[in-house]
Amino acid sequence: MTLDKVVQASGGSARAPHAWKSVPRWATAILSRLAKLGLADQAQQTLKELQKSVKIDVVHWGAASQACRRWPQSLDMVQSAKELGILPNEFVFSAAVTSCTQHRAWRMVLDLFSECSRRRRLNDFLNVGAIAALSWESSLHLLETTRDRHIQTQQVTFSAAMGTCSKAQVDLWRAASGLLESMSLCNITLNIVACNTHADACAGARRWQQALAAVRKMTQNALQVNLISFNSALAACEKGYEWKRCLSSLSFMETARVMPEIISFGSSISACEKGMQWHLASEHLQHMCHRRFHADAVALSAAMSACEKAGQWEAALVLLKPTLGASRGVFDLSCAFSAALSAAERGGAWVAALALLDTAARARCPLSGMFAGAVASGIRKAHGEEAAVEFLTRSRWQWEGASPPKAVNLDTGDLLPGVQILAEAPGLVVIAKESDVRTEVLVNAARKLMRQELFVVSRLDRPTSGLLPLARGLHAMNWLQAQFAGRLVHKEYACLCEGSPLGPVGTCGCIDTPLHAWNWAGEVGRTVVAPFGREAITEYEVKERFRGAGSELMLLSVQPRTGRMHQIRAHLASISRPIVGDVIYGNLSSPVQCHRLFLHCQRLQLWDLSSKPLAVSMPLPPALQRYLEALRQPL
């Protein structure tokens, strides 16, 4: 954009295009416009033109400085202002600090801070602006260097640095705690913003003890604990599975004359759900409604999930009914209906689940194959698989208009592997996955090879090899989802585990302890046995036994009846029979070593889009076959 066009866009006259040179107000508007467009050269040219006709002040210089994106230009603006006798204000310094910060010109930033420390009214503004714009690593480094050079820092400076820690997707509660202690060492009075930011960082890291201690520290320093403080403490207790402390904190809120709101109740209800306290979750949901708060999706789903885990499907339906009219159009009831359907399915009430599915349709709740699958699972238990498949076939029309799944960028940048197609059927394709290949990368390759939209319904872990079913199109995706939810898909894995003997060849067993997936930011996801976890069932049969170094090796045929993350690996590790080659759940000090995870999906049985059964097999990869052959050789 030319300068003349900027002049016109800023209110200049087309008949008198140079009138702005004698009207300071117009000149400021033009400079601000140039700053928004990032036209630094034109802004500097405009300043030179102004010097010929009007007296330039710090307002003009500050507006022009905002246009500078490159740090040398910003520093030139600061120096030029001094040479003209213009005392730079916070906008001039802020532009320079921001550009230097973005280009990691730390020495220049510190020099600017040193100069600003002599102008106390500018110091807070600049420190906060620079630190808040940085990553947590850079903000801590900059703050530490600032202190080493004895540059004055204030409350808001530390608060900004702690803000970068609380927003980071890693566990930085220790860094935030250290900053809080540093404030005391620097004789800086604690403020509510810094304490709240510290509590929020602790909540994000599931450090409920530290979050509660932060609230206590506020009261000890005569700070008024507010809603943000309590919500951080409640969230920390909820994430730490401390339902009793969460409810105690909620009660203390009213004592402190802080009224709970939707987020507060949501944390307490979720805590009760994780603590297997379905009756307390229900009571708090009702208490929330009595306070004239409309139950949101999080609170309602958590309360109903608590009922589902406790087998209280009637209570789940009671909670759902009042919200059907009140929440219509306010939030999506999909999660609530899903929990209610699961509760009815687990309770064997497939007739009630069928009626609930009809209610969901009449409530215009977005339906998917997951909903019908929950009903099909109950029908399967009562009348067998054929009846369940027949129900799914007849109810397909309900999800034909289902919303498409969220767009996922499968273009990971990885070198695309070769795709081996093992079977094709109406709506389905089954491909072979090798170990150390991510499911997303393989699906991306299959899409490009087959030139059609493919959807993943059940993925394989990266170190696992074997059969991977894909849905061809949205309708097929919902059909496959319904089968997995209805437990009509049968998978059989071959795995080699170590530990004490499970029994002679042919011994069968079942592991049915609930599993909970941990997905902490910055860490590898893990699944653990937990009473508040989701239902998980793994059946196994001993196929071969081998003598190991200090323990026995067992080749198992494993059939997972549910589809939890790392289910087979976590279940076998929970009974002290970890899979050989498992670097997450295995015994790293074991003398038994394998170059990869000995887990392979070798058989798959499901139903295609024409309701016909499809069975596919895949032998063990050559490397695993050679490993077994070596074990079979006599010593």
Task: Give a verbal description of the structure.
Mean pLDDT is 77; it is low at 5-17, 120-137 and 165-170. Helices cover 51% and strands 12% of the residues. It is an alpha+beta fold and 635 residues long. Helix 5 (71-83) runs antiparallel to helix 6 (90-102). It has helices at residues 3-9, 24-37, 40-51, 58-65, 71-83, 90-102, 106-116, 120-132, 136-148, 155-167, 173-185, 192-204, 208-220, 227-239, 243-255, 262-274, 278-290, 297-309, 313-320, 323-326, 334-346, 350-362, 369-383, 385-394, 439-450, 474-485, 567-574, 622-632, and strands spanning 420-425, 428-433, 454-456, 465-472, 490-499, 508-511, 515-518, 526-529, 538-547, 552-560, 599-607, 613-617.
* Radius of gyration based on Cα positions: 32 Å
Shape: globular
The computed structural class is alpha+beta
Mean pLDDT: 77
Number of strands: 12
- Gap from first CA to last CA: 82 Å
InterPro entries: PPR_rpt, PsdUridine_synth_cat_dom_sf, PsdUridine_synth_RsuA/RluA, RluA_PseudoU_synthase, TPR-like_helical_dom_sf
Protein name: Pseudouridine synthase RsuA/RluA-like domain-containing protein
Family: Belongs to the pseudouridine synthase RluA family.
Pfam family, one: PPR_3
